[in-house]
Amino acid sequence: MTRTYSQHSTPQIRELLGRLVDHSSVSSYRNAMRELGGHLASVVETMLPARKPFAVVTTPEDADYLTHGMLQVLPRERSRLVCYWTERQRLEGHADVATVIQSFVDPAMPSALEAVVIVKSVIATGCIVRTHLEQFLTEAKPKRIVIAAPVMRRGADRTLRAEFEKNISDRFEFVSFATDDHYEAGILKPGVGGQVESLLGLKGKPERFAPALIAEWRSAGERVEA
User: Fold this and answer.
1) CA 198 – CA 220 distance, rounded (Å)
2) Is 3-225 CATH 1.20.1740.10?
3) Per residue of the chain (226 residues), what is the pLDDT tens digit?
4) Of 184, 147, 175, nearest to 13 (Cα)?
């Protein structure tokens, strides 16, 4: 079991990653994810074009924690939020398959964007990231594609690039704090400590539950339009 830290991984970030693995409580895990989101944003912001809008694409389970922390640091006036709910299947002898079953797309989303940030708590197979990116490319045509996660599986970047045509994969830029190489029973180890939904206290939530971030974003949009 080997973990490699990236050049972005400070002692504080490593402590937060350790807190995910220890997961002493749901509240501690949630707070660590929010803080890691802020640290990811500090790196990602340097990669985004100045003064132009960009999209942040999230999962519902990450929205109120990792993504919320990220959006507290990224310039809010230029951020456009997208959330995809997916249904995932594991097929014997085949790669995982995910299908978008519901979505929230910021009403202010332009058809052409300089950049999109696909954010996820952990990238192991890349199945969800692949599905989200495929879906997003039907919504907008970003020039830069940033894929950000606190932890990634070693080689996941190569796997994702191989799933897309070169004119798309050449735009990929990956940001992570650690890479792990031990994948067992559908879980990357040490990864982020196990199944994220359970560790965030979301196990048993309806499949299409609405994160608080989406309601907050809708409300803010309505105030601006008014």
Assistant:
1) 30
2) no
3) 689 999 999 999 999 999 999 888 999 999 999 999 999 999 999 999 888 999 999 999 999 999 999 999 999 999 999 999 988 776 555 556 788 989 999 988 888 899 999 999 999 988 899 999 999 998 888 999 999 999 999 999 999 999 999 999 999 999 999 999 999 988 999 999 999 999 999 988 888 899 999 999 887 764 333 2
4) 175
pTM of structure: 0.92
**How far, CA to CA in Å, does 107 sit from each of 45, 221, 224?**
22, 8, 12
Instruction: Let me know: does 147 contact 159? Beta carbons within 8 Å.
Output: no
Closest listed residue to residue 70, CA positions, set 125, 111, 121: 121
Is residue 83 a contact partner of residue 55, using CB atoms and an 8 Å limit? no
